[in-house]
Design brief:
mainly alpha; globular
């Protein structure tokens, strides 16, 4: 009982921190865009990059949550999502200052943030009660157009970073980035297949509970 209480408190704190962090990112990006228009796109990384980095580093903990069975989710799809984001953020964007001011980075952050704002509020509510059908449907449906768009944005970010890595004469790394494209596509297809299966399972469970009532 004590262990369950500690796990519940930990998961609540984790989801709350992630939710607050992503809410701050979203509010900051929207406020800057409404205030400065397209000029805000170039400064997105400098205004929210630190918080985005902290949130993405924290997301690695989710792999341990699933492995330790304190969170019910597929380990491999989450591993793919976490690793592809951290690769793009820390290896590509942060390591190349020229990339940080590109508009694709703003688009990338917006898509990542929107996906996480669908996930963490649902995670918070699920700790204490059964989410409503509307929240369940939103959580497991809106990612369908957003996730492929975020993967495309990741590919574009890597593609736009290639010339800068080539100019550094790091002969092997541009080839590593080129090899990342097929891995990204394969990983995205597998993740979508798994998440679609999870969506069907969750909605079927809800429908069965509704019929029993």
């Amino acid at each position: 009982m004590v262990r369950c209480s500690i796990q519940l408190a930990y998961l609540f704190l984790y989801n709350l921190l992630q939710f607050c962090g992503h809410t701050w990112i979203f509010a900051n990006m929207m406020a800057r865009f409404l205030s400065f228009g397209e000029d805000a796109l170039a400064d997105t990384f400098y205004s929210v990059g630190v918080v985005v980095s902290l949130c993405q580093l924290m997301s690695v903990l989710e792999l341990f949550h699933i492995a330790d069975e304190i969170e019910k989710a597929g380990l491999l799809p989450r591993f793919i999502q976490v690793m592809e984001r951290n690769f793009v953020l820390f290896v590509v964007i942060i390591s190349q200052e020229e990339v940080q001011s590109k508009s694709i980075v703003c688009i990338q952050f917006f898509l990542w943030n929107t996906l996480d704002l669908l996930r963490y509020p649902h995670g918070l509510l699920a700790l204490f009660s059964t989410p409503s059908f509307s929240m369940l449907w939103v959580r497991h449906t809106l990612w369908i157009p957003l996730y492929p768009l975020s993967v495309i944005a990741e590919g574009l970010t890597v593609y736009q970073a290639l010339p800068y890595f080539e100019s550094l004469e790091t002969f092997s790394f541009p080839y590593i980035l080129l090899g990342y494209f097929p891995l990204l596509a394969i990983g995205a297809c597998f993740t979508m297949w798994q998440l679609l299966g999870e969506r069907k399972q969750q909605l079927d469970i809800w429908n069965k509970k509704t019929k029993r009532k």
